[in-house]
Amino acid sequence: DKAVICFDDHDIFRLYSPGITTICQPIEEIGSTAVKLLISKISQSPRLDDSHVVSLGTRLLVRGSTARKADDKLLQ
Predict the structure, then answer these.
(1) Torsion sign over Cα 27, 30, 34, 36
(2) Which is it for strands 21-24 and 5-7: parallel, antiparallel or unpaired?
């Protein structure tokens, strides 16, 4: 009775049986936002000093690694 969930979807997670459930993150957007915040801090710009990044649009891809036994046939 174990469940597996990983971050960042990768092709290999679809190849295993059961497929591995993943949380997909927008890597490019996270990197771009991090660089903008870092540059803002380095340049002492007050514009982004107090900013908070709330959501960058993550998605949950449910696959067989988190399915209950009765639901396995539905997810394959």
Answers:
(1) positive
(2) parallel
Q: Which two tokens stand for residue 47?
A: 């514009």
The 10s digit of each residue's pLDDT in 27-60 is 888 888 889 888 877 887 555 555 677 777 888 8
- Could you tell me the pTM of the whole model? 0.56
d(C-alpha 67, C-alpha 61), whole Å: 12
